[in-house]
Amino acid sequence: METNIHPRAEDIEQIAASVFSTMLGLEFQTRAQGPPDAASPHNLTASVQLDGNWRGTVVLHCQEAQAREFAARFLGMPPPESVDDDVRDVLGELANMIAGNLKCTLQPGIHLSIPEVVDGPIDPPSKSGTVICELGFNTEDGPFWLCAVEIALN
Fold first, then answer.
1. Domain edges within the chain
2. Phi, psi for residue 83 in degrees, rounded to 5
3. Which residues partner with 111 through β-bridges?
4. Which of 26, 32, 135, 151, by CA, is between 20 and 30 Å from 14?
5. Can you tell me the distance from the alpha carbon of 26 to that of 147, in angstroms, rounded to the nearest whole number?
6. What interhelical angle do 85-103 and 9-24 show, nearest 10?
7. Which CATH superfamily includes the segment(s) 9-150?
8. Burial 113-131 (b: 16+ CB within 10 A, else e)
9. Mind listing the pLDDT tens digit of every residue in the chain (154 residues)?
10. Are strands 30-31 and 142-150 parallel, antiparallel or unpaired?
């Protein structure tokens, strides 16, 4: 991958495909339609901030059922019956891996935050900055969405 100033959708898609294939044994089947229902109380969202020559956020969003399945695959155990710390940790780690690999495609000097995972309804990504790309994917465990949001440098 070449070095860019801004994240590119094709880089995010390639990175996500690699992370989901390697860590979860999941392949993308098709693109998910439309953005997720942000108001649903059954959502989980993991985000990682990038700060440096490019400033923004990588957001991984899915429904609770998918997050439980992702955790089961990642940890090699049966799916938890409810969202617990393991599920949140796995979702945060997936977002962190995607953001960390994306960082390598950007100009040097980018630093990552610790992943943050939020339960329940989310604010639209455009509320915190300019949406660079929003991608939705289907897997056999269900859909998930990735978003890159640019935050203006002060």
1. 9-150
2. -70, 125
3. 51
4. 151
5. 19
6. 140
7. CheC-like (3.40.1550.10)
8. eebebbeeebeebeeeeeb
9. 555 677 888 999 999 999 999 999 988 876 766 666 655 667 899 999 999 888 999 999 999 999 999 999 999 999 999 999 999 999 999 999 999 999 999 888 899 999 999 987 566 555 668 888 888 888 888 888 898 888 876 5
10. unpaired
